Amino acid sequence: MPDAAAPPPSRPGPELDLRLVRYFTVVAEHLNFAPAAEALHVAQPSLSRQIQRLEDALGVRLLERTPQGSRITAAGAAFLPQAQTLLHTAQQAVRAARAAAPPRTITVGYVEDLVVTPAVRDLRRRHPDAHVRTRHLDWDEARALPEGRVDALVVRTPLPIPDDGLDLTVLHDEPRALLVPASHRLAGKESVTPDDSAGEPLVACAGMASVWTRRRPGHRPGAGRRPAPHTPRRPRHRPRRGNRTLPGGGRHACGRPQPARRPLP
Predict the structure, then answer these.
(1) Rounded to a whole number, what is the largest CA-CA distance in the chain?
(2) What is the pLDDT of residues 178-194, one digit of tens each?
(3) DSSP labels for 24-52?
């Protein structure tokens, strides 16, 4: 009796770009391309094209555009948990490979104006065989840590990324301050509360996270004006008119000379 014909070899699946997979998970979280593009710091048309590339690679429609935003399809709902697991596994693989390698290079990332020099010196003293280097990041580049571009990150909270799988250590608490013109009605007060500045326009300094422009619970992330990624720290355009909230211990030099700085609770 002749042997049954052997099944044809299985075709390899599509090669998935993890960046596109991450884009899809963010759009699926927001169900709207506009806030998803803002969270990813990419232009909305570009994000739409990247999602289309992913759908073309998979051969299925993951999202449907609606007047209210986007709706995830049945295929997208089935793909989403697998995509999240894929991204988590990729991050674990990066961390495992780095942990198993000899400690030759340790990269410490830091954002904005945070000072890491004493910590880096102590790290070099305790690990003389390791090459300890630093990497300055923009405020919106916290993803450098889970992506493996840095081994440790000194950043202000709240993190703009999920902290699952990360070891968080609070170094110290930092007060906030309100920066106003010297002629402002609040300039003569020793301290102010968020209610004191209610209704006042708030703008962000270049290179500072938009969290510092938020004044009340429920404020939509990004609703305050903020610079686009990679905005120069000393922009040449005319400064915006308004007040600033910023770290009380920071060295931010935005605004006009001789501003009044008042502590916030």
Answers:
(1) 100
(2) 777 888 888 888 788 87
(3) HHHHHHHTSHHHHHHHHTS-HHHHHHHHH
